[in-house]
């Protein structure tokens, strides 16, 4: 049985909320104190998360051709973003300098990942400054940074083969219906498959089915009971996947390739839920999975792209194990729960900008629970466009002190970068601003985050399984 090998740590095996909004406490009381203003911002316990359209991010070019051969064209169109023009230099010189810098970085990265032994510290430094698009270098770098690939290059083929085989067996064991699995295992011959010399006169013989294997069995030990138990989870996953980056044709629409990608995401999330019955599926996990799967499935290496689903599953588990405690209601008040993390964000802001901290904490009483819960649990995937998300994740995964350390700094930087507007705003205005974060220069934001001082020892977490 393979399922135990990919489970999350024991401390995370608790009853999780059905939705990510259920831990936002005290908001209703605050809105009543403010006279009910801005009622459209209220979080209700159990309410589904609103899908926020990425700000400043245009839809991809319209196309009526949904053939699979157009996938690359659609993908490139999806991620086309407007380059900012410098104030003093013309757009031509800026684009040339940017192209030269990107080529230099790509050369450094390709040289590093092609070494017999990859220097992870150097790779982290390169990733923190942003990985170049295209060429599959980001896919390889993320796998290394997440510990999915070992530093020794000669072990890559063996590790990939073993992990992909494990995933295939898990899918066969847990995603096939009991009848499909039984037919596959038994290889029973149908009437038409009977040998020519066998006796076929008289009534056909039916295969005996035990009570536990009967589809109508209500017993908890029944394989069909366990199979149908996940029907509701599968339906929730399907609903959420329809809302996953609806502006990107890679994920949305009725084309053959978008359906293929959604099916792969569904398999990963449903398999995760079955392997982790104490956690199951929590709304929003689809948003965390999407960037990983996109990067891996767009790898120009055909073999890697064909195995994007298996690779994404393993890396998704590794990434989620670093923050899964945030979803656990029973751990809310513990040192690793979401409330403790929100408190650390507040303390980090106080240490780096006490004026802004006092204004939010005491003057307008805009608590981190009201806006940062989604930032932290979804790793900022709902606050920025897809291109910016990948750039931010380069810094998250490249941080030597772990994802959570850099995430806290970026969240704090998001507040500091909006200081002028926040100091002039009241409760409702500030909450709207932070729940619908405006366009910002991502490189500037990340530089502010890097300049923030913090004790990273409390955030250092292992990404290994």
TrEMBL record:
<dbReference type="GO" id="GO:0005096">
    <property type="term" value="F:GTPase activator activity"/>
</dbReference>
<dbReference type="InterPro" id="IPR000195">
    <property type="entry name" value="Rab-GAP-TBC_dom"/>
</dbReference>
<feature type="region of interest" description="Disordered">
    <location>
        <begin position="27"/>
        <end position="95"/>
    </location>
</feature>
<dbReference type="InterPro" id="IPR035969">
    <property type="entry name" value="Rab-GAP_TBC_sf"/>
</dbReference>
<feature type="domain" description="Rab-GAP TBC">
    <location>
        <begin position="132"/>
        <end position="400"/>
    </location>
</feature>
<dbReference type="Pfam" id="PF00566">
    <property type="entry name" value="RabGAP-TBC"/>
</dbReference>
<feature type="compositionally biased region" description="Basic and acidic residues">
    <location>
        <begin position="72"/>
        <end position="90"/>
    </location>
</feature>
<dbReference type="GO" id="GO:0006886">
    <property type="term" value="P:intracellular protein transport"/>
</dbReference>
<protein>
    <recommendedName>
        <fullName>Rab-GAP TBC domain-containing protein</fullName>
    </recommendedName>
</protein>
